[in-house]
Amino acid sequence: MDHNNNIAQLKDSGLKVTGPRLKILDLFEQNPDAHLSAEDIYRLLLEDDSDIGVATIYRVLTQFEQAEILIRHHFETGKAVYELNRGGHHDHIVCVKCNSVIEFFDERIEAIQEQIALENGFRIVDHSLYMYGVCPECQAKAKK
């Protein structure tokens, strides 16, 4: 994790560098593959003895989303989760038991979506694909 890079990223996004913003961005940088809710962030910050309130976390998450630092998703868990915007497109498979998330990219799926859009006279400007299932770990637990 490059703390100075995070400071530069906040400044480049037009956001003032504050302690809460920096701590939350550092948390995402330390967990680059994570999909975290505001509650997850609050819990992780508490474990780190940070005294950032839930309202501040929600405010920072909204600012980061607007600045395109984070991407917000609404999986079937009923709460918003956020991930770092690393550019590029990917899709998600979500476990309905433990809420683990796997990211993937498949050219075949992308091509089929383009074909379907074309056949219907559409030009895709954005899309999201979420697949839901039971992960291997939860399947193994169920067999015991």
TrEMBL record:
Keywords: Cytoplasm, DNA-binding, Iron, Metal-binding, Repressor, Transcription, Transcription regulation, Zinc. It is found in: Cytoplasm. Pfam families: FUR (PF01475). InterPro entries: FUR, Fur_C, WH-like_DNA-bd_sf, WH_DNA-bd_sf. CDD domains: Fur_like. Its main location: cytoplasm. NCBIfam families: PRK09462.1 (NF006999). Belongs to the Fur family. Homodimer. This is Ferric uptake regulation protein. It comes from Vitreoscilla stercoraria. The gene is fur.
